[in-house]
Amino acid sequence: MPELHEHVERIYAEVARRNPGEDEFHQAVFEVLHSLSPVVSKHPEYVDSAVIRRLCEPERQIIFRVPWVDDDGNVQINRGFRVEFNSALGPFKGGLRFHPSVNLGIVKFLGFEQIFKNSLTGMPIGGGKGGSDFDPKGRSESEVMRFCQSFMTELYRHLGEYTDVPAGDIGVGTREIGYLFGQYKRITNRYESGTLTGKGLTWGGSQVRTEATGYGTVYFLNEMLRAGRQSFEGKQVVVSGSGNVAIYAIQKIHQLGGTVVACSDSGGYVRDQTGIDVELLKEVKEARRGRVSDYAILRGDEATFVEHGRVWEVPCDIAVPCATQNELDEDDALRLAKSGCRIVVEGANMPCTPKAVKVFSESGVLFAPGKAVNAGGVATSALEMQQNASRDSWTFQETEVRLAEIMSRIHERCLTTADQYDRPGDYVSGANIAGFIQVADAMLALGVI
Ligand code: NDP
């Protein structure tokens, strides 16, 4: 056993050496490998066939220039990325992120996470991720459109419903997917709906896809509460972010009886003790593309805006980080635990630092990782692909029932697997091991490719 653990350690050292400077990627790999020691002890075949080493190396990495002309006639150059990480279970599947912080290491961390997340859904989708350092904030509609067209002019040759199927992520919503799909259709002369997900409802999109990640996060949380014989009734919740995931998480928490008392964006947080008015938040963020500070002004006396404040200062029973990676650190975790927070679930990808996760485990705060919790988004994307393939379209209710069932199955799978590997109640080990085994077995079956 110690030598097998050493095997995993050696792989991590190799990943760090071969991918210098990609801190987020190292962090994501470490987090998964850390859980795999008991698996390699039980299954030497994964060592013999170098499955874990192969998993840590993307199948293909594409980096490209994205030139476009801004409204003042200046040529702008951005960098585009698509990391096709693993296609053992199905076509590469994962979102595109447009944000100035995007670089190869971030796209690789997201792509790596996506492999296990997609595997956990039980659906036939591999893992990938992409994006650009383009910042849509403050850009006009026509600038965003020209950027998307240029991005797709290069990327289209790598995509296809059986090859690679992108979706949205930070900075990429239905508007951007529309421009990307329009350009794909124009270049290929084919209406291949199954090539992109997150499409609008009138042109091949699925009901519930917009709501799916936030709703799915809350369905998972609800399963955790039920497993502990609790409910949302009377619970105060803090949600970070105010984008796609955050908005629909807030909406579903309210529908199930909890109260979200604060949310945020990169400018600060808003506290609203009677509960965030989700319709107003949607109006501000989706329709006006405004800030949570605007929400506070429109809401009046009920709400307080704390400029540059950390949302984790607000006491709560449950915390749901839904903004971005490493947004909740050790100090935040200590503060949350001290103020009585008992559950933390990751709506975003890797929002809690490793030290924060350690604090949760040491202080008895129940914690569940993003790759399980937020898998409802990609699962509903897979439902969108199913509907596109059969030229069908399901009702909101029918689709939401499927989403809830998928989240319940993922929750069950995490707990059962954690039990099997002697880590009862450990959602991190359960998610990593269950996600890993399914991909690893497929890789073994497909041979060394
Ligand atoms: P959006 O772009 O819709 O919203 C992101 C939100 O996070 C905004 O409120 C943004 O504020 C805030 N934010 C971003 N960066 C920072 C930062 N550095 N500090 C503070 N706040 C920040 O993105 P999504 O809601 O789609 O994605 C949120 C998270 O969920 C990401 O980690 C994403 O990878 C993950 N996710 C998304 C899925 C989806 O279906 N959309 C699926 C699975 C995971 P501001 O406007 O000020 O930048």
Task: List the SSEs and their pairings.
Elements: H1 2-18, H2 23-42, H3 44-48, H4 51-55, E1 60-69, E2 75-86, E3 92-98, H5 104-120, E4 127-132, H6 141-155, E5 164-167, H7 174-188, H8 209-227, E6 236-239, H9 244-255, E7 259-265, E8 268-272, H10 278-287, H11 292-299, E9 303-307, E10 318-320, H12 330-338, E11 343-345, H13 354-362, E12 366-368, H14 370-373, H15 376-389, H16 396-420, H17 427-446
Parallel strand pairs: 3-4, 3-5, 6-7, 6-10, 10-11, 11-12
Antiparallel strand pairs: 1-2, 2-4, 7-8, 8-9
NADPH dihydro-nicotinamide-adenine-dinucleotide phosphate binds next to helix 9.
Provide structural commentary:
The protein is an alpha/beta fold and 449 residues long. It has three domains: 54 residues, no CATH class; 132 residues, Leucine Dehydrogenase, chain A, domain 1 (Rossmann fold); 162 residues, Rossmann fold, CATH 3.40.50.720. The protein contains 17 helices and twelve strands. A seven-stranded mixed beta sheet has the order 9-8-7-6-10-11-12, with helices on both faces. A hairpin with a 2-residue loop joins strand 7 and strand 8. Helix 1 packs antiparallel against helix 2. The protein is globular, with a radius of gyration of 21 Å. NADPH dihydro-nicotinamide-adenine-dinucleotide phosphate binds next to helix 9.
